[in-house]
Amino acid sequence: MYDSRRNIFWFAIITRIIVLSLQFIFNILCPDHYADAFRSPIDHSERISLYDNIITYLFSGLAKWDGEYFLHIAKYGYTYENTLAFYPLYPMLIRVTAIFIRTIFFVLNIHSSVLIAAVLINIICFVKSAVVFYDLSKVVLKASVAYKAAILYCINPATIFFSAIYSESLFAYLTYYSMLKSIKLDPYVFFPIGLSILTRSNGIVNVGFPVYFELRKLFYTYTEKDANFSLKALYQFIFKITSLKSFCLIFSTIITSIVPLLLLQMYNYIIFCIPNLNQTFIFNHIANSSIINNLVLPGSDNIEWCHLKIPVAYSYIQKKYWNVGFMNYYKIKQIPNFVLAFPILYIMIRCIKEYFFEHKKYFYTLGFIKDIEHNVQTERKKYPIEMLVFVLHGLFLTVFCILFVHIQVSTRLISSASPLIYWYCALSMSDIFYNDDNSIDNNKENIFWKWKVFFLTMKRYTLKNKLIFSYFLGYAVVGCFMFPNFLPWT
Questions:
Q1: Nearest C-alpha neighbor of 208 from the set 258, 143, 265
Q2: What is the dihedral of CA 177, 178, 180, 182, to 10 degrees?
Q3: Which pTM does this prediction carry?
């Protein structure tokens, strides 16, 4: 007999084995499509052994699209301007891990070492993220629903990106860990948040979680002591010693969380914008590739963002190389990509809408008034009120995806950053109503068996259940086919 947490651990491992197997099969069965995408230049002087060929044969399907960027940065650093769009924590971990791998398995060359390191890091981070996600879900949802949500996370629609050479697994782990620590008001939550910011640009949104929960604690203290809300009473409360301590904690959390980002911007500026200080060694094949593909090297004269009032590379490079901007993706030829992203955006909007209509008063006050919380809890609801901050976070991500990013990226961006998609689907498949002591989950017993997974043993499938499973499993399998063959699935 296994508890649910251990069940999630094993299922996460099993799904990684299946994904790795599927990508390998599809990669050898189908020839790669020639995509107009970045390819890291090959060092022809590098020795290639039989073991290197085996590693490439097994895992090359995972190093497509953005995976080329991450492997390039891990091997050579930020040698081209367009590589600055990819944040450094993940390639740094690959580089460090590859050094240890190559020390032990000295017959492997650099490329094989970083490839193995990237796959290993993703497997570890994904398994840890699944367990942490279950812990987070259990704080917000009932245990059986949290279990279902974690199982769904393991087979999420963007699951290929959690095994490919992408930062999704690392970012998901750091994000869910930050959310959990924020709920627990951990004073050291700035550390995982800072690391998430160094992993992905949207990690900066995670700063909002500790700020929200600390402010909510302050307002709860205020409403408990003084039920009569007034500006004068609020003013007196704000300047109490305990309140000042909390504000100092909030301020220090924000500053310490974004310091890594500021240091990264300074590093980018020094490397690319100050030629006299730039001592970066550029290999011949890197320099030759920059000429052939018109790529900008560090210290070049034509780096426009260096001359901006605020010389930040990220937004400039996203616009220059990928045309990322407000509604820039709204073109007739992109309709298939909008169709591809529609399911996850629909689920997010549906979840946000249903939560809003269930908890209007609580939503309007942002959960800061405790009396409203008690009133809401007396009613029979589908969604727990504790989901509010995650709903607001999901709303921001959804609007951002619809208006700014390449729309097909929505699936992997939301799948690795927001728990809402999994919580909505898990709640939709459960006979659970919050604040109802008689509510039961017919599949609850499945969490206690190592090889039992709830969706394989359900006795009755509703139409909604079938649609959810079709979406999750369908996208997971199709993604394992499309991505390794350089087909558009990004």
A1: 258
A2: 160
A3: 0.92
